[in-house]
Amino acid sequence: MKSPVDILKAVRSFRYAGAGIYNLFRYENNARIHLMACLAVVIAGVFFQISLTEWMLITIQIGLVWAAEAFNTSIEKLADLVSAEYHPVIKVVKDTAAAGVLILAISAVIVGGIIFIPKVLIWF
Questions:
Q1: Is 54 one of the annotated active-site residues of the chain?
Q2: Transmembrane residues, as ranges (predicted)?
């Protein structure tokens, strides 16, 4: 009887996903910018001793921004493969994918502001 879960296939999938994460942060400038922002937020979270709920919100925001950046990069790479030359529809596709990242990044900044601004004001 075949196992309901193919462990070797799952391990390969994780390895491929890991390679994707590595490539994202190695080759994509904006992903590295998000990584630096993440490190700054984590340091601030430790410094200000944010609550468990605040950590959960921060973690969700970081995950959403990184996922959006990965999707955006995938869409851009695929669009470049489909048409290496300028095409107005491909431009709209790429711009719209980048807008998704920007929307989530703005949301993350707002959540960060809600969490950290009161703590900074009290600290001063």
A1: no
A2: 33-50, 96-117
